[in-house]
Amino acid sequence: MPRDLFSSEQPEEEALVASPESQTPRASDGSDGTSNATGENGYNEFTIHRDETRQGNVLHLRNGRAKEKQMNDLHPYVQTLSISNVEDCVALENAVFPEHERCSREKFIYRLSVCPELCLGLFSTRSSPPTSYTASIYDSAHPPDSATPNLKSVLIAMVIATKVDAPTVTDEAMDISQGWQNSTSPTSGTHGHQEHGRTIAIHSLGVLPAYQGQGLAKTIMKSYEQRMETSGIADRIALLAHDHLVKMYEGLGFENRGKSNAKFGGGGWNALTYEFAEHGPGS
């Protein structure tokens, strides 16, 4: 199930390097004692504190540039997932989640077949596997295109989802439609993906362990929220989270609806929803 992978040391705002459409420039009039330095694209790279010593400023600038270089080295980009990414997703899922909370290969095949448009991946283009990658992660990756066979697009973060009738994620939503491979209507019934549903149910949100704490979970989730809201295909996004993750999801605009009845993975989940603006409370 969705798991928050932000570092506790991560600042409230993080440059959304991998998703240009999700970037938000930060303005400051200096009233808070800070001024923002921006790069060529106009987005925040680092903040200079005017009351710091020169040595402190240099250190802060170096830290900001180091983070920028770290992100640039990833060569990240966001892309809709497809059935061709099944092995990528399985490898990432196994690297992130405990066994009792993992999505099975069968469910990945199902979800990437019936509703791939609801599944988003954050990729990094690499020419060789860093020591931080497990063999399965790099081996399952594909070249980004036929012109660069020496490169591989490695899945480092993903959002996997389906649509459901209910306003929150249920055990039925996490199931697979029976006989979907042989059915002319693979989304019929009460289990699994419901094409006519107005709730997007997130089943997997994960970031490769080696890249956790860099704000990538926030990057892909903000991009996902904007893409789904702009598409007009649903009224909300829903997910399940454990108690210690609720506050962080609330920081992304989700509202805690209380304890969920879902028993997946042993239960104990909180039901959270992100209401799109025109369908939010009071609209």
From TrEMBL:
Q: Name one Pfam family in it.
A: Acetyltransf_10
- Segments forming domain N-acetyltransferase: 189-275
The answer to whether keyword Metal-binding applies is no
Membrane-spanning segments? none
Q: Which stretches does the entry tag as region Disordered?
A: 1-56
Give me the stretches of Polar residues compositional bias: 20-41
Q: Which domain of life is it from?
A: Eukaryota
Q: What is this protein called?
A: N-acetyltransferase domain-containing protein
Question: What keywords are annotated for this sequence in UniProt?
Answer: Acyltransferase, Transferase
Instruction: Give the organism the record lists.
Output: Lepraria finkii
Keyword Acetylation carried by entry: no
